[in-house]
Each structure stands twice: as C-alpha cells, then as structure tokens.
Amino acid sequence: MHIASLNDIEFDQFKSWLYVTAGINLSSSKKALVAGRLAKRLQHYELRSYGEYFKFITQKSESVELQMALDLLTTNETYFFREPKHFDFLRTQILPNVKSGKIFRVWCAASSSGEEPYSIAMTLADGLPNIPWEIVASDISTRVLEKARSGHYAMERAHNIPKPLLSKHCLKGTGTQDGTFLIGPSLRNRVQFMQINLNAALPKLGEFDVIFLRNVMIYFDMETKRQVVARILPLLKSGGYFIVSHSESLNGIADSLKLVTPSTYRKP
User: Fold this and answer.
1) 37 an active-site residue?
2) Catalytic annotation on 255?
3) Candidates 37, 41, 190, 231; catalytic one
4) Given 74, 96, 127, which residue is the final one in a domain?
5) Residue range(s) defining the domain that contains residue 25
6) Do residues 212 and 106 touch, judged by C-beta distance below 8 A?
7) Residues 105, 139, 188, 209: which is the catalytic one?
8) pLDDT in tens, 142-196
9) Same domain, 37 and 97
C-alpha cells in the first residue's frame, strides 16, 4: 500500500502537538525523522497519509496509540557513562562529602532506556557502601521505561562500563541470552522508574541531593526551559547539585544556581 509523503501541513500538526504535549520544539530538519519513525504505524493501521494518522491518534478513544506516537517521537540515543566527567564529579566531589543518617537521593529526570540511571546506580553503590541511597528515574516515554525496568541490554552496550563495575554489578547472559547482560537485581531494586512529563505539573517526589537533567533541554525553546527548570528546582535540596549535559547551559534560565564546573550547578 502506498503512503503519501509527509507534507508541511501534516508536519506542522505533529510539531504543534509535540510542543504542547512535551515542550519539544522540532525544527523543519526533523521532518524526515518524523516520517520515518511513524511510517510503520501508518502501515499497521493501513492508513494512506500522515494526516489520517494524526486524526486517528487525536480521537479521544485512542490514548494508547497517542502514547505510542509520543514514544516514537521522543526516544533519544543514550549509552552507559555518557559524558563521563559528570560521573567522575559525582564519585570524587559529591559522594565523599555525604553524611550518614539520611537516604541519599538522586533524580534522573530524562532516563530514556535506563543506561544513565544504572550508571548513576553503579557509581553510588561503589561510592556509598555504608549509606542508604535511592534513585528515581523518569521519562515521558512508556516504551523506553519498559526497556529500562528490564535492565537487559545487548553486550555491545557494555563497552563504556568500567570493567570492575561490569563484573561487580552485571550478569552475563548464557544460552539463549548469550550476547546480552543484565543489571544485577540489587541495583535494579534501588531504581524506581516512573513516567513523568516535565512539561506538566510534577507528582510528589520528595527532595533530592542531585538532579540529572541531561540531553533533553536541547529540544526545548528558552521559555519551555525556564518553565521546566522552575518546576524541578524546588525539589532540589539546598546545597544539592543540578547537572545538565555539556551541550546545555542554565545561563539566563536559573540564575539562582551557582556554576561549579561546566554543566554542573549547585543550589545555595
């Protein structure tokens, strides 16, 4: 069955919907990405145009397919120990100063398929052997959260994990699971995965010592960045750290925070 190519009017429909729903600002260069990621859904429903698909997903009865489209358009590439300087900073500058007596809490606010929160978990398990800790990991996409909860990855995803951490915290697949590895249950049980839309009111999560918000603000315009950070900051403890990716900055977005090292901020 022939599917008509995604035209500008249809692209604008998806673009506006994604901006209102998730705060993501798609540039016109992403038109091919939108068409490519949604093409199989049109085939699945035997629809001839992207306009028909948009009409279909925005019907009240189609919340499941709406979430599917959202998942497909918001899934981003990630890997273990991405931007390693942040994990070095966590290990050498933050964890040695943690006082015993309270649970050390981290929020990974754009967790994708789990590589980032599990990298944080390995770092905490090694750096805080006698202090309780927990991680909340959230994403807007239910599909990547499902993958994250499983903690099951292809072995080639492991190449950035330091060897001692890999052997200590991960289980190598055998038999039918050959060529894969599993994050050990003792780590998996300390990461709570939740679906959270940063562009809407946040659920009650408590306060955090460190918040990672990496590689997501690149998709937001300035006003959306301000709103998202303004929602998140009340959940960061005084003296807590706010970490964004090296390609992002909070300059003009959250001037109350103090820059500690590039892309790492501290709440006074």
Assistant:
1) yes
2) no
3) 37
4) 74
5) 8-74
6) yes
7) 139
8) 889 999 999 999 999 999 999 999 999 999 999 999 999 999 999 999 999 999 9
9) no
